[in-house]
Amino acid sequence: MTPLQVEAKTFHLVTATFKPFTDPDHPKGGFLVDIARQAFAKTGHDITITFHPWPRAIKEAETGRADGLLSAFYSPERAELFHFSAPLNTTRMVFIGLRSNIRTPYYNDLKDLAPYRIAAGRKWAYSPEFTTATDLKKEFVDNEEQGIHLLYNGRIDLFAVNIDQYRHTISKMNEYDIEKSLILTPPISINDHHIIVSRTLPDGLKLLTDFNTGLAALKASGDYQQTRKRFFGF
Hints:
Strand content: 15-25%
Number of helices: 8
Shape: globular
Mean pLDDT: 93
Oligomer: single chain
Order of helices and strands: EHEHEHEEEHEHEHEEHH
């Protein structure tokens, strides 16, 4: 048993499909699942993953039917119910435009974007300011592919999307050149992905402590960066 290892356990985690972060069709389960499994392995543990619709996944974790929920953003409301792990990943929601249509990659306020037609995901998490902005011309899409098609065919001016998912998706759409796209600054929001465990779960904090230890070791070894490169190419 190595210094990092403790009594081996198998933890049952739940999550929802959020490709490429959590992906039931990928042999590794997606980037975050792969990272979580490697991090727990550093301290001698294993995990099982079950995919559910998001409302059921969070309820399974809240009630303790699962040991934890993978891929949760922090919110004060969730913090009343759950303990949070160290971040597995930091991701940004951004506005993407085409270089041929957008004069500058900078904006000062959402009101600056009022002239543009903006596509957003129906169930994606944005900043409260963007979500409640009523003076923006928004239309909604079900997935990244739809938004990219609209953007590159001139149906919209901006696509509000997760930057990692945008890069992952467009890399598989050979008809579109990512070099023609432009990321606006500042991002809409910056969020960390966490594992969360119910505050009522016995030894929940111990689970997170072991995970955090393993995650730190994974990053120190360079394996974290190599895994990210395999999924995202950077």
